[in-house]
Amino acid sequence: MGGIFPEKEKLDEIARWQGQIVDGFGVIGPEYVRHRLRRRQLDAWFEKQVKAARAGDLDVPAGSPFRQMLDHVDADGRPLSDRTTAVEVQNVIRPTIATARFAAFAAKALHENPAWREKIRTEALERGVTWDGPVAEAFAEEVRRYYPFVPLLPSVARTDFEHQGIEVKKGDRVLVDIYGSMRDPEYWDHPETFDPARFLETEMQHSEVFVPQGGADVNTGHRCPGEIIVVGLLALTVAELSVREWTVPPQDLDYSMSRLPALPADGVKLAGMSSPGR
């Protein structure tokens, strides 16, 4: 786990808690309370590991993400605090947890778009690998555009500004329409159609209106620094699913636009998963 090696029981618990953090970050009710509790518990546990490593009581492999975080310094050349290091280590791990929701939508998309599933299968078989395939990556990007991992993001204005003739005052509540931005016909051709071709041999994934995980430059804007991890893992998942045989049993694949993060009602259950057909 990034250079930290707990017992299997603890590892399973951490994975479960990280999943609960992702599940409850944008809902009202018990899930959010659990989200806050798990975040505090995990921050404390990882901070304990940081303190142990810096005290020399924990062997951390060179080159591991954990070691890199421990050795990282800020712009003034100072090491990160124990708490910040603990949080940043989790920022490497948590994108892999969040990707599971995109993966569920990707399985739904493969089920509903068998022609694209065959294209990705052909690409993977021709290349002999299931990573770095441009068709699989384009499919992954279209999954992120088409399906609402987060339909919107709430925020608070930090300064007074005007947008499209509307005045916004500092402290006003603002809702960023993630889903609508990626369905705007002014910027997207046939936005209601699932079409990965829009990301093939184009730069649309770098467009300012493509904001599935935040917008602007990752170094200066509100954009998830784990985005590239998500895209890579999702493309790999799509390719792996495409080279295997499976069926989708009867289930509810609809999803609610009021749920943050969103997920098909029954998840996405696959049956009869075969070994890779390479």
Automatic annotation (TrEMBL):
Keywords: Heme, Iron, Metal-binding, Monooxygenase, Oxidoreductase. Its cofactor is heme. The keyword Cell membrane does not apply. InterPro entries: Cyt_P450, Cyt_P450_E_grp-I, Cyt_P450_sf. The keyword Oxidoreductase applies. Belongs to the cytochrome P450 family. This is Cytochrome P450.
